[in-house]
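Internal ticket - ligand job 65, iron/sulfur cluster:
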Amino acid sequence: VKLVIDDDRCTGHARCVVLQPSLFTDDERGYGLVKDDVSLDDDAKMEAAGKAVAACPEQAISIVE
Ligand code: SF4
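stdout (structure tokens):
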């Protein structure tokens, strides 16, 4: 299970980064990036990921199998 950001939807508010810095970073323009080593392998990470999905104003973040 992993996190994916749809680059076509992301408009770079960096809200995901501010809310869940353990899961996301951002590029030089403030566009969200999923950190390389993130795997949603426990309940705490899954809950954090769900909050980020809900908080993204562009519906750009997905949790995929
Ligand atoms: S909150 Fe959504 S739109 Fe904003 S940087 Fe993160 S993925 Fe992109």
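Auto-summary: Residues 43-55 form the longest helix (13 residues). The mean pLDDT is 96.
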